[in-house]
Structure formats: structure tokens, C-alpha cells
Amino acid sequence: MSSLNYKHLRYFWMVAKTGSIAKAATQLHLTPQSISGQLTEFAETLGVELFRRVGRGLELTDTGRRIVNYAEDIFNTGDELLEIVRDSNLKSTITYRVGCADSVSKLIACQLVEPALRLSEPIKLICREGRLASLVADLAVHRLDLIIADRPMPSHLAVRGYTHLLGQSGMTVFATAALAKTLPEGFPNCLNGAPMLLPGEDFAIHQRVLQWLEKCEVYPQVVGEFDDSAMMKAFGQAGAGVFFAPTVIASQVCSQYRVVQLGHIDSLVEQVYAITTERRLSHPATVAISKMARDNLFAGEVVSTPSGPTSRRSAGRSGY
């Protein structure tokens, strides 16, 4: 085989998508016999079996499934190309793909990325969410331009990438006003026996929270652990327990989730990183994100490491 026949690949892809030769023939405006013949020729050229008969239908082989994944990328990219060519207004648009780790607050990620949409050159933003290892794999094959994470890129992953610290923040503990009224006075002692929602083990802050609780000799009742920050806050909003979030977004958390602040912990620090394939940030959107972090979001955050927890009066409840 000297080269890939993309016409045959499209016919195969359409049959795989529709589940039958007859349906594919209808969409392609061809006869089923023509499609069947082209599929046979394609399989013979590749030297593999693409489908197997199951009753009256067709089922992809393992090899066929792998080829479908490649065909999906090829034709989706082709469709994007046609959209750009057909719309002269999009000719200068840059596609910018951002991956956000599940463990990063969506409120923080949104504020960081928003300036990229206000660049003089139009940006089409594509956001992906997932586990850090999966996002790094996408970064390695250039499916992502940037990852926002709460930890540096894992050293055990054989991927060429660079970690850039965007900023850091102390943590704040939140609860609904109704739950807060049931707790004793004084922070952090009010957390003793309190129902608590913890960030999951995939969070960089997870172990630090446990260490802080142990250091303070505070023993809450852990009622749930969450691998997604937004879901943890949603359960907190429902009154399921107290929860932690970065202090830099404390006011937004209170407003969006209708909760109050129980206390601040400057010694419990969460970092936010940008992971890219660039040693020095040069992409205009990435530079805008870095500038937002440095000059705005984390600009006023001074993290200290006092001997004990810090406490500030909460606007939502007296006594804290």
C-alpha cells in the first residue's frame, strides 16, 4: 500500500458511525452495492478485517475500532478546515485548547482563562476537564496548548513539558449559615465533630488538609471526599458539610454557593500551575493568563506560615 485512500476511509467511517451500509449509502447518496464494494477494496488494501457480521448487522473488529478513532480525528479536522475557509470572518481566529485538572477550582480557572478571550486577535477557546495524567498525555500530542493544575507536571511521566507557577493562596473553610449556627464558637475548634467534605486524594491539598487538622487537634466527621471541586462545593451548598476552597475566591464562593466563611488558614496553601510545552511563555493567550494571575487574581495574596491557624471574622456569622 503506497498511500491511504481517503475516499475509502470516509466510506468506512460513515458505515461505522451509522451502523449499517444502507444508512451510510443514504447519507453519502450512493448505492449500498457501491459502498460494500469500496469497503471490501479498502479492507483488502489494508490487509485487515474491519467488520464482522452479527446477525443482519455489522460489528467493528478491534482493528476497525482503532481505525475509527484515527478517522474521527482526520475528518473532524477536515470539517474545521472547511468551516474556516467558508467563513472569511474566522480566517484569523486562533484555536486555543486549555485543559483544567478536576482538582482546580472552576472559579479560578474561569478567571485565569477569561483574558484570553479579550485579545486583539480572535480566539476560539476549547476547554477540556479531566485527571492530570490524561491531560498531560493530550498535551504531549499537541491536543492541548495549556494545562491548569494544582501541582507541577508529574516527574514519572515521560513527556516534554514545563511547569510555571501562576500563584498560590491560603484556604478558607465554608458552611451554610444553617450549619454554621449548629457549630460551637471559635475557629478551628468549631470543626470538632462537624460534618466535613474533603478534597479527594487527587488534590494536591488533600494531604495538607489532613496534616493541618491533626496539627490543630481537630477531629471532624468526614462525610465525603470529592475528586471534583465543583461537586464538593455543590454538596456544601446543600448543607452536607463544611468544605475548603482557596481564599482568593472566598467572596465568589459565598455569593455563588450561598455559604459563609468560618475561618481562614494562611498556613494551608494551594498552588496553581500552568503546564505547557514552552520553556518560556510566548503564546499570546498563555501570556495573558499568566499576567492575569500575577497582576490580578493572586496579586494581593500574601501567604504566611504562622505557628498556628489564623482566624478572621466572617462577614456571614458573628463569633468567627
Q: What would you say this structure looks like, in words?
A:
This protein is α/β, with parallel strands linked by helices. It is 39% helix and 23% strand. It contains 11 helices and 10 strands. It has helices spanning 6-18, 21-28, 32-46, 62-86, 106-113, 132-140, 177-181, 206-215, 229-237, 250-257, 284-297, and strands at 51-54, 57-60, 94-101, 123-130, 146-149, 162-175, 195-199, 221-226, 243-246, 260-276. A 6-stranded mixed sheet has the order 4-3-5-10-6-9, with helices on both faces. The chain has a two-stranded antiparallel sheet with strand order 1-2. The chain has a two-stranded parallel ribbon with strand order 7-8. The radius of gyration is 26 Å and the shape is elongated. The chain starts with 5 loop residues before the first helix and ends in a 23-residue tail after the last helix. Residues 302-320 have low confidence and may be disordered.
